[in-house]
């Protein structure tokens, strides 16, 4: 037969080590606030386990209330950490029902129905663990295999607490006077240690994975405009084959050097951000915007005809021409020239499409700027930019 006291102490020791590790991670990466929340939740559960061990040896009504409150509070904090990690801010959906259940539990225990208090608490913890599993699976945007394991472990742990409550309910043990000790409690001790250890390890994995994603996003994002950069263009499209329904538009702001020389680089930065805002309006599924550097931007368009691609590029040119930047020398209007390259039926590489678009861009510059040119469309080679967006 399993030594129940040893199981409880093992759970406390495991939780303490896990909590200390998470506090250490948060200390080195303060931006990982969810790690701090998880560490606090586990620490509350460790205190619960220690007090429950004392309660099993020397039961008292007040200690029973504290033990049950800490159990619900600890798992509530863990549930909130999951919501925090996934960017869910409506904490009231978890806090209010849990506090209500804790109040009912306290009332039942105060009246002497400590068995009812245990049943209510176990039901509350079961619901919180199931909620954690569901929100990780539904809202998680990481590796589905990790999220599946997180949801599975949360569900198994929830089941073990549900069994503890079900045993008391089936036996009609409304009044206990002592800590419950049955096969479900012993099973729950083993399952909780295993699941919480596993969830702790997966929490580290998710933290590491998010850090990698954020680092990758930083290396592929232009800090001035927030658009993707040249590295991202190569990563996403460097190996792609451009077919007949794919195209690339290159935009170059007209007389941008003169803008910097006359109005100053801070104004030039404003102009760049303004164009980025314009091009971002037309970004959608199948349309990605990039800043290559300086005043040069790229728009990759997929699953659309050449006419539609030309229309979008022209609208961007026109829309930017209506933008006004306030300066100390008066309002500043800027224009942009664009060139479009198209994929072919036999498949074309990114470099070849960019070269075609670049040639079209220079044709637009030679034709007087403030226009979009599709180099392989003779009818559009000298077409001025549209005058309405």
Task: Describe the 3D structure.
Keywords: Membrane, Transmembrane, Transmembrane helix. This protein has a six-stranded mixed sheet with strand order 1-3-4-2-7-8. The chain has a two-stranded antiparallel sheet with strand order 5-6. The chain is α/β, with parallel strands linked by helices. The protein has helices spanning 4-28, 33-57, 61-85, 92-110, 114-139, 144-171, 183-219, 230-237, 256-263, 265-281, 306-321, 350-366; strands at 228-229, 246-253, 287-293, 296-302, 324-325, 332-333, 336-342, 372-374.
Give helix % range: 55-70%
Question: Structural class from helices and strands?
Answer: alpha/beta
Structure summary, number of beta strands:
8
Distance between the termini: 79 Å
Basic shape: elongated
Order of helices and strands: HHHHHHHEHEHHEEHEEEHE
Number of helices: 12
Average pLDDT for all residues: 86
Strand fraction equals 5-15%
From the alpha carbons, calculate the radius of gyration and give it in angstroms: 31 Å
Organism: Mesorhizobium robiniae
Keywords: Membrane, Transmembrane, Transmembrane helix
Pfam families: GGDEF
EC number: 2.7.7.65
